[in-house]
Specification:
A hairpin with a 7-residue loop joins strand 1 and strand 2. The chain has one domain. The model has no long low-confidence stretch (mean pLDDT 77). The protein has a 3-stranded antiparallel beta sheet with strand order 2-1-3, with helices on one face. By secondary structure, the chain is of the alpha+beta class. The N and C termini lie far apart (52 Å).
Length: 85
């Protein structure tokens, strides 16, 4: 029986990220519009869906498969890079 997370836009985004890495391309998660892909989901400690980390820094699939998080989704949220000195 399929698990909902494994199908749909989240799986498509994860596969695109893996394909880019295999081709040697950077796994781009930032857009010119100032948004960045973020992983949201529920955990045992905090059951409502909440920010788990940035998509390029957190392995959403591993979180789901391990049972540490569920109801995982990727969302684009506003992001502002820190100014470099």
């Amino acid at each position: 029986m399929p698990r909902g997370y494994e199908e749909g836009p989240v799986a498509d985004a994860a596969q695109a990220r893996l394909d880019a890495i295999e081709r040697g391309e950077p796994a781009e998660t930032r857009r010119a519009s100032g948004t960045r892909a973020a992983v949201f989901g529920a955990t045992e400690e905090d059951s409502p869906a909440h920010f788990l980390g940035w998509a390029d820094e957190v392995d959403a699939e591993e979180l789901f498969e391990s049972g540490r998080a569920w109801g995982i989704s990727l969302r684009r949220i506003p992001f502002q890079e820190a100014a470099q000195r």
